[in-house]
Amino acid sequence: MTKHQVTLTVNGSSETIDVDPRELLIHTLREKLDLTGAHIGCETSHCGACTVDLNGKSVKACTMFTVQAAGADVTTIEGIASPDGMHVLQESFREHHGLQCGYCTPGMITRAYRLLQDNPAPSEEDIRFGMAGNLCRCTGYQNIVKSIQAAAAQMNAAQEAAE
Amino acid sequence: MIPAAFEYHRPDSLAGALSVLEEHGDDARVMAGGHSLIPMMKLRMAEVPHLIDLQDVTELHGVTITDDTITIGAMTTQAELLTNNALTRAAPILKEAALQIADPQVRNCGTIGGNVANGDPGNDMPGLMQCLDASFVLAGPGGLRSSPAREYYEAAYMTAREDEEILTAIRFARPVGGYAYEKQKRKIGDYATAAAAVQIAAEGGRVTRASIAMTNLSDTPIWSKAAGDALVGSDCGTDAVEAAIAAMQADIDPTEDNRGPVEFKRHVAGVMLRRAIASAWART
Amino acid sequence: MNDLSPGSVPSPDDRAAKLKGLGTSRKRVEDARFTQGKGNYVDDVKLPGMLFGDFVRSPYAHARVKSINTEAALAVPGVLAVLTAKDLEPLSLHWMPTLAGDKQMVLADGKVLFQGQEVAFVVAEDRYAAADGIEAVDVEYEELPVLTDPFKALQSDVVLREDLDPEADGAHGPRKHANHIFLWEEGDKTATEQVLSEADVVAEEMVYYHRTHPCPLETCGCVASMDKINGKLTVHGTFQAPHVVRTVASLLSGIEEHNIRVISPDIGGGFGNKVGVYPGYVCAIVATIVTGKPVKWIEDRMDNLMATAFARDYWMKGKISATKDGKITALSAEVTADHGAFDACADPTKFPAGFFHICTGSYDIPVAYVGVDGVYTNKAPGGVAYRCSFRVTEAAYFIERMIEVLAIELGMDAAELRAKNFIKADQFPYTSALGWEYDSGDYHTAWNKALEAVDYEGLRKEQAEQVEAFKRGETRKLMGVGLTFFTEIVGAGPVKNCDILGMGMFDSCEIRIHPTGSAVARLGTISQGQGHATTFAQILATETGIPADSITIEEGDTDTAPYGLGTYGSRSTPVAGAATAMAGRKIRAKAQMIAAYLLEVHDDDVEFDVDRFVVKGAPERFKTMKDIAFAAYNQAIPGVEPGLEAVSYYDPPNMTYPFGAYVCVMEIDVDTGQYDIRKFYALDDCGTRINPMIIEGQVHGGLTEALAIAMGQEIAYDEIGNCKTGTLMDFFLPTAWETPNYITDHTETPSPHHPIGAKGVGESPNVGGVPAFSNAVHDAFRAFGLRQTHMPHDHWRIWKTAHDLGLHG
Description:
The structure holds three protein chains of three kinds.
Chain A: E1 4-10, E2 13-19, H1 25-32, E3 51-54, E4 57-60, E5 73-75, H2 88-95, H3 105-118, H4 124-130, H5 142-162
Helix pairs in contact in A: 2-5
Chain B: E1 7-9, H1 14-24, E2 28-31, H2 37-42, E3 50-53, E4 63-65, E5 69-73, H3 78-83, H4 85-90, H5 92-98, H6 104-109, H7 112-117, H8 125-131, E6 135-140, E7 143-148, H9 149-152, E8 153-155, E9 158-159, E10 166-173, E11 178-184, E12 194-203, E13 206-215, E14 222-223, H10 225-231, H11 238-251, H12 262-282
Parallel strand pairs in B: 1-3, 2-3
Antiparallel strand pairs in B: 4-5, 5-10, 6-7, 6-10, 8-9, 11-12, 12-13, 13-14
Helix pairs in contact in B: 10-11, 11-12
Chain C: H1 12-19, H2 31-35, E1 51-57, E2 63-69, H3 71-74, E3 79-83, H4 85-88, E4 95-97, E5 103-105, E6 111-112, E7 118-124, H5 127-136, E8 138-143, H6 150-153, E9 180-187, H7 189-198, E10 201-212, E11 221-227, E12 232-237, H8 242-253, E13 260-263, H9 279-291, E14 295-298, H10 301-307, E15 310-322, E16 328-340, E17 367-376, E18 382-384, H11 392-410, H12 414-421, E19 430-431, E20 437-438, H13 443-453, H14 456-471, E21 477-487, E22 499-500, E23 503-504, E24 507-513, E25 519-523, H15 532-544, E26 551-555, H16 572-599, E27 606-608, E28 612-615, E29 618-624, H17 625-634, E30 645-650, E31 659-669, E32 675-685, H18 692-711, E33 743-746, H19 764-780, H20 795-804
Parallel strand pairs in C: 1-14, 12-13, 15-18, 16-17, 25-26, 32-33
Antiparallel strand pairs in C: 1-7, 2-6, 2-8, 3-7, 4-5, 9-17, 10-15, 11-12, 11-14, 15-16, 19-20, 21-31, 22-23, 24-25, 24-30, 27-28, 28-29, 31-32
Helix pairs in contact in C: 11-19, 15-16, 16-17, 18-19
């Protein structure tokens, strides 16, 4: 099988790697780029533990070949924080106990990050529907919803203050 | 879950894609969003020596809406169906159905072309397309041809598409009247236990045209002409609706799976259709 | 440093707040790394030269293995070795002991006994090559008749376990059939039968708790690494009991225990799935010894659901009797337990049915009997405690269904029937008919609080109105009120009767106070999301006066942590939490001597005051723990060794008995079987509350797992033993969309024998939640004559119940 040289932007830096066509994006991120934040949970695109942001959209990196992502702009949980500190969502998940074992958390936050970009003031129903591609076995979601609501409120307040 | 090795092709034109397909014949498969094919490859239930990624094929993208016709490029994602307001105004049933497919991440990758093309009886869009009397545009070595959705599905994963053809677009007349897509499923991300797509046109309180199609209740989607006919001329009263349900139930042939036994599915098919008709009628 | 005027000393409350000790909703210290993607789970472990191993698995549930040809696999690029039972046999590792006293094939030895069973282990340079190697291994099978029904298995001529002598006793006594594992009995059978036969009212039902699976989001896996230079084996893995794994690995491999280091890194949920020892661990260890390179093995999701430990699968035939006015007189449970192909339950060794005999529940039942028959079938082995103590959720489900059925039989309200039979607060400590000594409880107070909180009478009125509306054809929905009052038994356990493979189920804590007054504490447990690093520091903060933020908690590395039996069965707080408090008290005792010396008074003349020792009657004269720590290392104190360290191995005198009252209000669509959880109220009494925020989180999570189990989650097989639920499409894990909000509440009845009165909470919501959801479904149909139906209550089963009751016209 022919190897492909793939260039993609990951968390702002350009990465060029040689991959077999069948290499899954989640393995490239975890094994080759040492970005082990995104996890493998179900491998059939049901659990969302592998969620990353690709060209401004949430996708499941277990169901995408790296060659498909050639040229893409990828953000993982490791790229969500700013140099000034953690992202509001990262703080909020801690503040509201939105995580327990932590395994789903990177995918959860990465997905919530995009959800709030798309819908800055979601209702509880919007959050539950918008997060339905991410499974959590520990929290029962109640505090995840709370964490996202609180983060949204904080981000909106900051936005208003800035305006 | 690791797929077998394959060669990857990423043509940037339809002609390019067709030539790869022609070159490798049975050994090649086209891929749109990959959310049906990649899991099958990972489970090694699909063998694909040559994978043709269609994402760069510009001809497959885009939505065109005219006064009477809607054309949706095969690579249009389910997410785009939700956010294209013009499309929602023109054919609101698409959004109603797309919301009930998979989850946000999967909808960002999964395409309408992929959903209708492969003949998976679990997919929602095939039944919907039969309801809308859509045609699928197929490009092959001999050029383009059109295949009516109502004749496209032959059996599970068996369709009218030839191996060397690519489904490029979906075209249907702008629907008129009321609509509904009712789906029962076990959870987000599941296929339908039963689902009903209904479009009803009415004049003066009477049904003038009705189209009914059902999902995941046979090895193909089921467009039930008799069910639609049973509503025509009626005011969607109980007798007409029950006649439509009986007609639909004569056309479906569900099989038992983890979602439940045949008797249950037949019953739920009736419930879904009853609710869809009521909703569509209320929207006429 | 003691010259502060009394007025400037912060109040005890202010100083206590700074400690973030017991009762504080302290934010978790674990979260910073998890929210930033910096957790370290086993699949994140990457060692130089690491290989990847994976299994060829059986497609058949029962078959003879005629031959295994590995030639083509060895020719696959990147494949280095393929291990079969033949390769393991010279090492006596082709079979391994289970925690339940049985043995289990590591790799198929002549036959396979369940679909997904490990047949060969392919070792390759990476997981892609391993997958190709697996495809290339050619196994010839001869199919054998399959037994998936435990009742049929006990009648069948088909012998599943040909390796066992049919005449010989098993690990738990005589076997009555080739496919029988044990009969385990408790209570007085004769007396129970006598009462049942003479009772005013008897209710009898078969209550089935279906097979399911803990399914943590992270699957099981390990990285084994043999250092041939120093002879040391290191195994990173998803182990809920790392020390036990070390001991088992030593016994199996012959490597001395000091040369084995087992490390449980961050674990992505366990729920019982990661307690046992799996063939993958053994094969990875053999492979690293053979190849001299680190070998990683990680299950995929299908492997996890099909091959590693399932839970439940109990057929419980119950009889319960009462007087006409509803006083329960006897209970009998005859259980047929489907253990699958090998008896690999993770129970304390003396309890092959776990603590199922807690099944008299929260009720004062004078006489009872339990008999459990373990049976082999062609299903995956396991029988672990999935987010519950050993077989306790089965027991709670059983009694809470039997109570409901008895209420129907009596024509009585089920809430009233419960209240009438609760063990009364003044009866504790209470010894049950099946031999448990319940340490404490106040059931009536909790029950009344719960019923009041949900307006129970109002709910019943609303329900009756809805039934009438349904009968009039005005609605197609029915309302169910699901009640549960459960008593858990957790914290295994006293070494006198609780051991695993001979290892007593104590636990441990070792504390080292640094000279500047911060500390590190190490425990024999391992967190899988419970937040031990946060809560154990809170216990120590209160016990020692050192702020929780200045205490590092470490677990999971057998080279550094003291020996302990691990985390499952809600045992961490009752056992290791107690060890932590006791070790803290040892620190405090030594600190008291040092303080007295520094303050130049007698030991008895100083007393502990939040974060310091003060001279009695002279609060302005004190030494803070910080002062004391510094002095402990830097001042020669006559008769006192330098340093400030303590270790405690805690053997609990009894189990703890958390309890709770749950009410679920559900609306059911009889035409589709769909349901809506309108309200869920959960009152938990877990004794002293260490961290209310974490308790609430545990309750939310456990209830959601209960929702999943009750309403759809199952491991199902077809008649030839194919597992039908091997992916998350079919194995039901609810998303945020299907999950309701929960109302949590509590009462607080401290455990009298636990040093801080804590009882454990992680598993209560699963134990109590399952019957609450299930009872709600049953209750919705009570007005139409339903007595008992089986879980999981997925759409089609609810629909079928409605259908069978004639509700579809």
